[in-house]
UniProtKB/TrEMBL annotation:
Source taxon at top rank: Eukaryota
Coiled-coil stretches: 3-103
Keywords assigned: Coiled coil
Protein name in UniProt: MYO5B protein
């Protein structure tokens, strides 16, 4: 039984190795084809006059720079939109802070202790464990199944 298991594992490894080798051979073939295409294009470029070579090089560079500029413009637009959004949020928050500060200065000193009592009440509310569930340990699988369905 152990020998059969080892043989099966060895065959699996051999099959995986052969599949990897085939994939790598295919990849090498594709790379060779691409290299041949590039070599042909290069040889064709060399056969052209120097003026045409320079012109082709300039056209390629212009195309690359144009694409790069378009990408940069798109990025700039995104950043400008984000900046506008953040400025709006900042204005809203600054207005809230100003309103809060104005309300604090208008509240008489004798009313402020009352606000502290309200804060204590809020703290007690936060400690109220609404949504908590008590169950027996043996009911856990049933509870999980019901939650999922």
């Amino acid at each position: 039984p152990v020998l059969r298991l080892l043989e099966a594992q060895l065959q699996d490894q051999r099959r995986e190795h052969e599949e990897e080798m085939e994939a790598l051979k295919n990849q090498v073939d594709l790379m060779q084809e691409e290299l041949e295409k590039q070599q042909q294009a290069f040889l064709q470029t060399l056969q052209l006059s120097p003026e045409v070579q320079v012109e082709l090089g300039l056209q390629q560079e212009i195309t690359r720079l144009t694409n790069e500029n378009l990408d940069l413009k798109e990025l700039l637009e995104k950043l400008e939109k984000n900046e506008k959004k953040l400025k709006k949020q900042l204005k809203i928050y600054m207005k809230k802070v100003q309103d809060f500060e104005a309300s604090q200065t208008m509240v008489p000193v004798e009313r402020r202790p009352h606000e502290r009592n309200m804060q204590v009440a809020v703290q007690r509310k936060e400690k109220d464990f609404q949504g908590m569930l008590e169950y027996y340990k043996e009911d856990e699988p049933l509870l999980i199944r019901n939650l999922i369905t």
